[in-house]
């Protein structure tokens, strides 16, 4: 049992001004594993003051200094990687196969950004002017509970590389994971006030940060509903916003795809991170004439998706993160059945023997139409909806018929054909026959079209989000 009752402000762990305490609950067995004291508006304001003070000097630090800090942050996280992995399992229910990827990836974003710093033209002559790239100011970084550490690192790296100082408002349900990360940040020895972290509710601490006049930039990852509220608040003082929001991504199986390979790929894309991934391929578009074959292949591939204790190496799927998530996923499964979709696999309730935690049954619906709720709304659990199509044009039309535009997935026997289709998908990234390279490539941007978001993360695209131009005629 660990009680997290401090924030990290001005380079020190400080007592919370806010006094509300909430329990942290294990998703695996619903036992109380700790508690977190939630900050209030005053804690948020103290953090902004510290960040604003630190901005004066940090904003004019050299690129070499910033590169050094990025390296140190990477090293500090990796030095405690086994602890990060253990806490991710305990607090979030992350399974071994995803944890290592997520923690190494979290550390690697700092090294990737170090490389990006070398590529960025911070000074450029344009006609009679010199155009400088300058940090925009104090940045508020607001993050969700799925891949909690990765989401924070992914924003910290470009913000710090740009010369911004930050106030992080992580999800209130990731306090144990974030505390360990903050200890690593502290160990990295950045100047006081450059990174500040305040635990608290979104509608309290998050709201204060998105309205605060001294915050110049908000980078938000979370649901589309909250993203809209963040943008409305930020408009009042014309803050820059980056929004990384929800998705309902389509995975198109082309008629030349190998059924077994496509099914295995489809389940990896849909069920990764216990099905709680913004980029998950949750609508599987299958040629009508290959439907029977794909159903059989999906059932066969599903045997690889054993649900179980996330601490057990054999588990491919752990529990959903919390009670609200479990209820939400159950609600969508019920809705799918009510609206006339057919269960190929899974359904409501827990897998047998796993009633103690928030474990859901991996679920595949067939006979889904794209106008059904389960094809339109983000479920955020291991639920895949299979939709039949007749022509390639129809597949592209269905894929693009969504309010979201975060990601696309394509299975094909011909990567060049896949690439041509990929260019027609309205999404920030499209993966043809491959899954994780997105986060492995240092310079490739990620982000959404439509209601999946505004702005991009990673590489020079991500770094630019924290920079403004200043043209100097001299
Ligand atoms: P959420 O929107 O409920 O919360 C995200 C963060 O916003 C939390 O820290 C929360 O406390 C805070 N928040 C809530 N209300 C706020 C307010 N009024 N003002 C300011 N901040 C507020 O999302 P969640 O349930 O934590 O995460 C799941 C969602 O995140 C899913 O929709 C998922 O698709 C999305 N997500 C998107 C990406 C991406 O890169 N596009 C990545 C991961 C998750």
Automatic annotation (TrEMBL):
One of its GO terms (molecular function) is aldehyde dehydrogenase (NAD+) activity. Its EC number is 1.2.1.3. Keywords: Oxidoreductase. Residues 13-472 form the Aldehyde dehydrogenase domain. PROSITE patterns: ALDEHYDE_DEHYDR_CYS, ALDEHYDE_DEHYDR_GLU. Belongs to the aldehyde dehydrogenase family. PANTHER family: ALDEHYDE DEHYDROGENASE, ALDEHYDE DEHYDROGENASE-RELATED. This is aldehyde dehydrogenase (NAD(+)). It catalyses: an aldehyde + NAD(+) + H2O = a carboxylate + NADH + 2 H(+).
